[in-house]
Each structure stands twice: as C-alpha cells, then as structure tokens.
Design a protein that fits this description.
This is Miniconductance mechanosensitive channel MscM. Belongs to the MscS (TC 1.A.23) family. It is a multi-pass membrane protein. Its main location: membrane. There is one protein chain. By secondary structure, this protein is mainly alpha-helical. It folds into six domains: about 200 residues, no CATH class; about 170 residues, no CATH class; about 270 residues, no CATH class; about 110 residues; about 80 residues, SH3 type barrels (Roll); about 90 residues, Alpha-Beta Plaits (2-Layer Sandwich). The chain has a five-stranded antiparallel beta sheet. A three-stranded antiparallel beta sheet has the order 6-8-7, with helices on one face. Strand 3 and strand 4 form a beta hairpin. Helix 20 runs antiparallel to helix 21. The radius of gyration is 48 Å and the shape is extended.
C-alpha cells in the first residue's frame, strides 16, 4: 500500500495548525515588561528539565489574567512538552541499560550455560519417589504445577522478547533516518525569528515544545545507536536464557508428570482398597444385621462414585496438559511466523508457513469438541449430593440404635471419612474442569485470531507469493518444465510406487483389483443404470428404490476416479525420503482427488439416460452440453493444478513464479473458453433460458450468476499476474468447490422432488382406479366385460418428470430448503479460509451497541424461512403422508395447524435467541402483560386457547356440518381466532372459537355423517292406516338416498283432532342431500296417497253458536238462515 511521506504529512499538519492559530493571534496578551528578561535571550540549546516545564504549566494554570481560550492552548502545548521530556528520560534510561548490557554479556552467558550444564537430565528428575499420603502428593502436584506454569510463562516472555529483538534491526534501519530528519527540521526551526525572539507566552510555549522535542529526538537517536551496538550482546544473552528456561521447563514438566502419576496411582490404589474393603465387609456381615448391611450397600455406591471421580480427575488433568501444550505451541508458532512475515514481507516460503498455521488453527475446534468430559452442572449436582450426605451424617449417628453392632458404628465413621475425601475430590475436579474450560476458550480465541491474521495476509492482498509477471517469467518457464519432467523425478516417482508395493503388497494388490474390477464392470453398471430409467416409465412399476439404485450405479461408475487418484496420493505420501518435487506432487494429488471425484460423479449424472435425464427430468440437450464442458474442463484443469502444486516446496519453489503461474494462466484461459461455449455461445445455456413473464426474474438471476461465473477466471488471472498466485489458486479451488456444492445440492433437491413426485403419481393412479371401479359398477352387464379389459396406460409425456403434477407448496418449500442448505454449505466452506462470519459479526449496526450485521442477517433468514415453511407446510404434509392415510379431513387439518403453530414457535424462539433476549430481565413485562391480557386481550387469548382446545378435542372438524345459534352450514376453515362456517346460502359466517366452546352446537357429522329425516303426515278419519303406512315404507324404500340399514320406519302416532297422524323416519348417508331428499319424499307421498284415494285432510274446527242470533241483521241479498230453538252445529 502506498504511504504518504512523513515530511508531507508534517507540512500538511503544520499548515492546518497555522490556519487554526491565526484567529487567535490577536487574543494573545502582550508581554509584560516586568517579566524575566532572560526568556528572550535564553539559548535554545540550553538544558531543559521536566521540573521547569511543569512549573511553567502550573504558573499558567494559576494566572487569572490569561484568556481561557489561550490558556487551553498553552496547557496543551506544555502538556505535549512534558510528555516529550518524559519520553526523553525513558530513552536515557534505556541508553544506560543498553550500555550496561554490553559490559557483562560474557559473564551472563557463561552463567546461564553453567546453570544449564548443572541441571539434571529428564530421566533423573522423573525418578520421583513416594513422599507421603495422597494429600501430601496433591500439594506437591499443585506446587509443581505452579512452578511449571511460571517457568512456561517466563519462557514465552523471553521468546516474545527474542522475536521482537530479531525484528528490531529492520525497524531501527527505518526509524533512524526519520529521527535524524525530524531532528534537522527542529534545529532549522530554531532559526526562525518568531522562535529565536520569542516574546509572547504562546511563542515561548512553542519554543519550549521545540526544545522538549529536540531533547526527545536526541535521546531517541542515541538510544537507537546504542540498541544497534548492543543488539548481538542482548540477543546472545536472551538465547542463552531461553535455552536454560527450555531445559528448566522440560524438567519441571517431567517432575510434574511424575508427581501426577504418583498422585493418580495413589488415588487409584485408595479407590481399589476402598472397593475391596466394602466387598469384604459385605461378605463378613451377619445376615441379621440389617442396619450394617444397608450402610455397607451405601458405602459400595460411594466406592463406585469415588472411583468414577478419581478417573474423571485423571482424564481432566491429562486434557488440561494437552490443551495447554497445544495453546502454547500455537501461540509460539504464531508469534514466530508473524515476526518472520513482518521481517521478510512475503514470498512462497511465508505463504506455505501461513497455510500450515491456518490448517492448525482450523483443526482447533474439532480438537476441542473431542474433549467431552463431565459438565460443570453434573459436577455441581454430585458435589451438592455429597454435601447433603455429610449434613445428614449427624442425623444418622443420632438415629443409630444403641443395640447396633460395632460394624455398623465403624461404617458410620468410615462413611464420614469417605464423604470428606469425596467432597475434596469433587472440589478439585470442579476446579480442574473450570480451568480446562477457560484454557479451551483461550485456545479457541487464539485460533480465531490466527485464522483472521492468515486471512488478512492471504486474502487481504498484503502478501505476494511471487513477484508480478514479467519477461523473466517467460524465460524461466522452459527451464522449469525441463526440471519438472526430468528423468530423475520420474525415477523417484517409480521408486516411491515400488517401495509401497514392497512394504504393503496385499493392500496395494487389493486396491488394484478393486479398481480393475470396477473398470471392467462399467458397461454392466451403465446398463443397470439405463434399466432403472426404463422401469420408472410406467406408473405400475415406478418405485423410489429404482432411483436409489440409479444413485448406487452412478457412484460405482465414478468410483475408479476416486480410487486411482486417492491411491497415488496415498502411495506418494508413504515415500521414505521424498524430494520437494515429490512432496508437491503428493499435495497436488490430495487436493485434486476430491475435486476429480465430484467432477466424475457429475459427469455420470449428466450421461444420457442417467440419473439427471431419466429420473430428474432434466433437459437432455443441456445435460449433453454440461457433460461435454466437464470433460473439456477436467482434461486441462486437474493436470494444471497438480503441476502448480509440484513447485510449492523447497527448491521447486524457484520455478513457482514461472511454470506454476503459466500453468495457472493457461488453465484459466481454457476455462474461460469452455465457459463461453457452455454459457454464452448461440446454443449455450443462456440462450435457452425462458424469457416469459413468469420466468423473467428467475432467468435474470440465472443470467447474472452465469455471467459472474464467466468473469471469475479473468479476475483470477489478473491476481496471478500481480503476484498473488497462491491466493488465486485457493480462490480457484474455492469457486470450483462452490459450483460442486451447488450441483450436489441440485441433485439432493432432485432426489427429494422425485420422492414427492412418486407419491403424487401413486395418489393419482389410485384415484384413477377408483374412478374406473365406479364406472364399471355403473355399466350394464354386457358392457362389463369390455370395461374389465381396459388397460391403464401412461401418456408418452410421463417419461419426463412432470413437475406440474406435484403440489406447488411442496415444490416451493423444497426450493427454499435447497437454497438455504446450499447457501449455508457455501458460507461454511468459505468461512474456513475467509473469516466471513467473523467479519459480519464484528460490524455493528448504527445506533446499537451490540447488534451486528450478522445477527440482522440471521433474523431475516429465520423469519423468511419460517414464513415459507408455515405457508407451504400443509402441502408438504399432505403429499408426504396425510393423503396416503385414512385420516379424516378434520384430523389432517388439525395436524397441519398444530405443525404450523410449532414451526412459528420454533422460529420465534430462534429469533429471540439471536436477539439475546434475557427473560429474567422481563419479569415486570410478564406481569404487565398478564394485567393487560386480563383486561384488553382476554377475548383474543380466549379465542386462541379455545382454538387449541378445538384442535385437540376436535368436537368439530373441517368438513363437519354444524348448527349453532340457528345457523347451519359446513365448517370450511379453523383459524387461530375464529372458525369459518359456510351456510346453505353460500355465506361465510365467522364464529369466534370461544363461542364454539361455550355455546351449545349441533354437529351432524361428529361421529358419523348419518342423519335421520322425520316426515309427519296426517290422513282423514276413515282412511286405511295400514295401507298408508305401507305406502310410506314403499316411498322410502324406492328412494335411492334412503339407507336400508338402518331401514325406514312408519308408525301410527296419534288420533288428532282432524286427522290420523302417521310419522315416517328414514336415514340419509350424509347431510348434503337432506333438503332435496325431504322435498322428493314429500312429493312422492302426496302423489301415491292421491292414487290410493287417501285424503290428507285440512284442519277442522267445530263452532257452537248458542245465542246472539236474534240481534244479527239479515245479510244483504241473501236469506237469513232459519233459526230454531236448538243451536245448530256447523263444520
């Protein structure tokens, strides 16, 4: 990165300072005539002390006559001068230290070497004898651990200081000219009139500041010179001190291990003796001493627990030492490599060291996950139980009967002693596990720091693996190729293979036989693969097992590639003394093996009548283009990748900038041509993308992705030309891996879609069979034979995967899961090399203190996935298993709704977890919400709870016919707050769920859709009731909707005023045909009664007129009826 020269920086800062100070010059107070006259004529080279400047600052701060603005400026200047003088004093002290370090270096080094020679060997210090009991050994172990830790920390400090010391010459060579230049500038500044004849307080302060800076720079110049002179002496002393500390650490660790071994052996012996003593005591106790037997049984459990705790303590201590060692090694390696990178700047060797360091840091999380020991909660629980048993000890002693035997009393005392020891061991184990967790956290933090540092160096373009491309690259390429393909290298290659055959003949022979067998059976595998495609063409023979078989044949067809590449990589890695060329070739084969295997797998998937064409229904022309492009890609890219890595080690790195870079450029030029033919050519994939309105957005996304993919090789070639060849190679492999992940995700998506497609086709086939059965039953007898010979055929288009036959909800949900899965896999892959997740997590959003972009993306992703899953889950469940079962519609709806509620709850809990909601801090909110719910939201909550009750209890279901508050209709939807009922007028009635729980409802189809119709009918007096009853039964029997089981009934119910009442009761299979059937029955009854001469009478009433006729007037135009003495009866 280009840096602005320091002189230019200073000039710019000085210019800004002048601009700021100009408005304040007028405010400077004039110099008083009674001031000290020596201030004007004081020599600039006079010695300036820290006390003088501090006294001047105190005088200014106490002077009330100076303006506040000017006073603040003077205070700032004098404060800078004080800091400069303090730094000058520190430099002077370091000068003395450096001079002193050169005086007694020989004696110090000799003393360290004498101490080193006087130290005992590791074998001697490891001979530690038994010095006491377990408690004494435990104290010795803790003391020795503290000594070892102190020595290790001191060694780390000395190593860091030595590493810093080795880097100081380069820093001094840069800083020394800068100090000399700054000192010259300050000396020149003293000649300025405003400094030489300073009269105002501000100018005096500036002169003091210049004097302080002059003193600081002079002392720093002297300090740098003395540091240069004492460099070798101090380095020699630190090296000697480091060697002594390394030996002391080895001895201390050896002593610690020996003491820990004795301590663990002592504990194990004590645990074994405890178990043996309990077993012996159980055998010796008399059968009638139940108290002692019960206590011995408890002691047996304590002995087992004691043994477990002792073993756990041993494992935890071993894990602590392992983690601490790994952490110290990683820290030391990291500091060393960082200093080397700082000194050398770059190069192939540094890149290799960084990648080695990165691989070690990447393995840290896996190593820590393997250390699964007792959790702190388990230990806390066990410790609490032991404490409780100790508290119960006095109770047991008081409750012990006086008639108890001596064995029982001895067991009580023994129990107390064991519990005390067990409590101590639990305490030690808890402390050890806590320390282990802290060490693991520090180790993982250091690993994360290492990963970030390596990523910044490699992917931040701070380090070139080779110089930029030039004419020398072309000149060295032929020589490098001759070196690479020299006969000596290929002889070494042959020797490596022959040596592995001599050392492991059976293993090599087995691999060869398997590879040859797979190659010879490729034709059979291909035929079997095509057979599975033929078997899925008919619905009657289509099974998902055929797709799984096709997947198996696909794996077997691509297996030889994996075996051959993997065998050569493994064989070369077993070479006893490989050269740099062979190591690079082995590394290249290991990197190429998984990529080549996945590529071979994709080629087999894209073959004609293969998994993609026959089972997934992918376009055959597109698959042919992709298959051809993969072949062209593989024959150039993989050899180039192996060739690039062949120049990655030792002497081979000499040709890395030439041969490796030219191989990279040629390979990616070829890749660009292949991509162009595949994507952009007139018959490429982009030309075949749909341009319809519904596909426009998706097509534009695909087009953008393909064009970006086409530009990637050009960008990587530019990086390689600039010198970032290793970075470009890693990006190239990463991009190829990304494409493979997308392709593999597409295959998994196709497998899932294929399973759902089969389910859909089976359901459609079953419905078609049912329709044919019904049609056959309805046909006449003479047509039945023809119908029975009907054959269900599959349309020719069914050979292709008909996505329209699959539920749109299912396909949408599968697409969302596919995008989510592939996206997460790609992010996880790139996070191993580039700290993308850490970077997003470190960027905080504005106006927030702890909310990062990563958390915002996580919340958005969770909400999006939750929304899509809730929206499309019904279709997935319906197609997956609900429709294939005999579960009723209402039950299926209840299951779907509950699953949606569960998804919403899980999604919200995950979102709240990302937001880091601390529920303990929201107790007041829960109280407030409870009050609010009690007043304002009680109806809403009641409806929600009642909705859950309806879903679990299921008094009504979707599809039921119900009557509530005089409204009869069909339940069409059950939602969170209300249920929708569609009445017979096709109106949708929204009924709150609470109403369905608290009110009385009639469910016509709760247990069965069977319902009864009651038809009352009256006949005139004098009619034949038996004939009328028979007519009613005949009408019911002749109607197709009336069930025969239970059959209809007709009864003579009563003698009414005007008629003889009969009632017919009949049963219908469902509620849907009720109104129409009643109408048809009424019509048929009237018709048959009329044909039989049975009268259906009108209601009749008798009027008795006893008086009042004498006062009525005659009717106009009519004769009045004759009135007699007796009243007449009129009907």
């Amino acid at each position: 990165m280009y840096r602005i020269p320091r002189v230019v920086q200073k000039l710019v800062i000085a210019g800004f300072a002048v601009l700021i100070a100009m408005p304040l010059v007028a405010q400077e107070p004039k110099a008083t005539t009674n001031g000290p006259a020596t201030e004007k004529n004081k020599d600039v080279n006079a010695t300036l002390t820290l006390g003088e400047v501090e006294s001047k600052l105190a005088a200014i701060e106490s002077d009330p006559g100076i303006d506040d603005v000017v006073k603040n400026q003077l205070q700032s200047i004098y404060t800078q001068a004080i800091e400069a003088l303090r730094e000058a004093d520190n430099n002077t002290a370091r000068v003395a230290e450096y001079r002193e370090s050169m005086m007694d270096v020989a004696e110090s080094v000799a003393g360290f070497q004498a101490q080193l020679r006087a130290l005992p060997t590791i074998a001697d210090v490891s001979q530690v004898g038994q010095t006491g009991n377990a408690n004494k050994l435990k104290q010795e172990v803790e003391r020795q651990r503290a000594v070892a830790t102190e020595l290790t920390d001191e060694r780390s400090r000395i190593s860091s200081e030595l590493t810093r010391l080795l880097g100081r010459p380069a820093e001094i060579s840069v800083r020394l000219p800068e100090v000399q230049r700054e000192l010259s500038e300050i000396n020149a500044a003293f000649a300025a009139p405003e400094i030489a004849a300073a009269a105002s307080p501000r100018r005096i302060a500036n002169r003091v500041l210049l004097q302080a800076r002059q003193k600081q720079l002079s002392s720093e110049l002297e300090m740098l010179k003395q540091e240069q002179l004492s460099q070798s002496a101090r380095e020699e002393r630190l090296v000697a001190r480091k060697e002594l500390l390394a030996r002391q650490v080895e001895n201390a660790v050896a002593v610690l291990k020996a003491q820990e071994r004795l301590f663990q052996q002592s504990l194990a012996n004590k645990s074994r003796r405890l178990s043996e003593r309990v077993e012996n005591l159980l055998r010796e106790l008399p059968p009638d001493d139940q108290t002692a037997i019960q206590m011995a049984a408890e002691m047996q459990e304590l002995a087992k627990e004691y043994e477990v705790v002792v073993l756990s303590l041993k494992k935890v201590n071993a894990a602590r030492e392992k983690v601490k060692t790994q952490s110290n090694d990683l820290k030391a390696e990291f500091e060393s490599i960082r200093q080397q990178v700082k000194l050398s700047g770059g190069g192939m060797a540094m890149v290799q060291l960084l990648y080695s360091l990165q691989s070690r840091a990447l393995n840290a999380p896996d190593e820590m996950r393997m250390l699964r020991l007792s959790s702190l909660e388990e230990l806390r629980l066990g410790s609490l139980q032991v404490h409780q048993k100790l508290r119960d000890q006095s109770v047991l002693e008081r409750q012990l009967p006086e008639s108890s035997t001596d064995a029982a009393r001895e067991l009580i005392t023994w129990r107390h002693d064991v519990l005390k020891e067990l409590r101590g061991h639990y305490s030690a184990l808890f402390s050890a596990v806590s320390t282990l967790e802290g060490d693991k956290t520090l180790y993982l933090d250091k690993a994360a720091e290492v990963r970030k540092y390596v990523s910044d160096r490699l992917f931040g373009f701070d380090m070139r693996s080779c110089p930029p491309i030039g004419l020398s690259t072309l000149k060295e390429t032929p020589e490098g190729l001759r070196w690479c393909f020299a006969a000596t290298h290929w002889r070494e290659f042959g020797h490596a293979l022959s040596s592995i055959f001599r050392r492991m003949p059976m293993r090599c022979l087995g691999v060869i036989l398997v590879a040859v067998a797979l190659l010879l059976m490729r034709r059979r595998f291909g035929a079997a693969l095509e057979t599975t495609g033929v078997q899925i063409r008919r619905i009657s023979t289509d099974r998902y097992i055929h797709t799984l078989k096709a997947l198996l044949w696909t794996f077997l067809l691509c297996a030889p590639t994996l075996i051959i590449f993997g065998f050569f990589a493994w064989a070369l890695g077993q070479a006893p003394a490989p050269s740099d060329w062979l190591r690079g070739l082995d590394w290249g084969l290991w990197m190429t093996t998984p990529l080549a295997s996945y590529t071979a797998f994709l080629m087999v998937v894209c073959r004609p009548n293969g998994l993609g064409a026959a089972h997934f229904g992918w376009n055959k022309e597109t698959l042919a283009r992709i298959r051809s492009a993969i072949k062209l890609f593989a024959i150039v890219y993989f050899p180039a990748l192996v060739l690039i890595t062949s120049f990655a080690y030792g002497n081979a790195a000499k040709y890395f900038p030439s041969v490796a870079r030219m191989s990279f450029l040629v390979a990616h030029i070829w890749i660009t041509i292949v991509y162009w033919r595949l994507l952009v050519a007139p018959n490429g994939i982009l030309a075949s993308l749909s341009s319809g309105d519904t596909q426009k957005f998706v097509a534009s996304l695909r087009r953008s992705f393909f064009l970006l993919l086409l530009l990637c090789p050009s960008a990587l070639m530019a990086l390689a030309c600039m010198g970032y060849l290793i970075t470009a190679t890693q990006f190239s492999i990463g991009l190829m891996t990304t494409v493979i992940l997308i392709a593999e995700g597409k295959i998994v998506y196709g497998l899932a879609l294929r399973w759902f497609m089969i389910k859909e086709r089976r359901l459609a086939f079953a419905e078609k069979l049912e329709e044919r059965r019904e049609r056959q039953e309805a046909n006449a007898a003479e047509e039945y034979a023809e119908a029975s010979e009907e054959i269900l055929t599959v349309d020719p288009d069914e050979n292709e995967l008909d996505l329209d036959s699959i539920s749109e909800q299912t396909r949408t949900l599968l697409r969302v899961l596919y995008v989510l899965g592939v996206g997460m896999a790609v992010i996880i892959f790139w996070s191993q090399s580039f700290p993308l997740i850490e970077l997003l997590g470190s960027i905080l959003l504005p106006f927030t203190e702890s909310f990062s972009i990563l958390e915002l993306l996580q919340i958005g992703l969770l909400l999006t996935v939750t929304f899509f899953v809730v929206q499309n889950l019904p279709g997935l469940l319906e197609l997956a298993f609900l429709r294939a079962t005999s579960i009723e519609v209402g039950t299926r709806n209840a299951i779907t709704t509950l699953c949606q509620y569960g998804v919403i709850a899980v999604g919200l809990s995950l979102v709240l977890g990302v937001v880091h909601v601390d529920w303990a801090q929201f107790g007041w909110l829960a109280a407030a919400l409870s009050v609010g719910l009690g007043f304002g939201l009680q109806e809403v909550v009641a409806n929600f709870v009642c909705g859950l009750i309806l879903l679990f209890e299921r008094p009504i279901r979707v599809g039921d016919v119900v009557t509530i508050d005089g409204v009869t209709g069909t339940v069409t939807s059950m939602q969170i707050r209300a249920t929708i009922i569609t009445n017979w007028d096709r109106g949708e009635v929204v009924v709150p769920n609470k109403t369905l729980i608290t009110n009385k409802i009639v469910n016509w189809t709760l247990s069965t859709p069977l319902n009864r119709v009651v038809i009352p009918v009256g006949v005139a007096y004098g009619s034949d009731t038996e004939q009328a009853r028979q007519i009613l039964l005949d009408v019911a029997a002749d109607h197709p909707n009336i069930l025969t089981d239970p059959g209809p009934t007709a009864i003579f119910e009563q003698f009414a005023d005007s008629s003889l009442n009969l009632v017919m009761r009949a049963y219908l299979p469902d509620r849907a045909s009720r109104e129409g059937t009643i109408t048809e029955l009424h019509t048929e009854i009237k018709k048959r009664f009329a044909s039989a001469g049975i009268e259906i009478p009108f209601p009749q009433r008798d009027l008795n007129l006893r008086s009042g006729w004498e006062h009525t007037s005659p009717m106009s135009g009519l004769e009045a009826p004759a009135l007699h003495d007796q009243p007449s009866h009129s009907r």
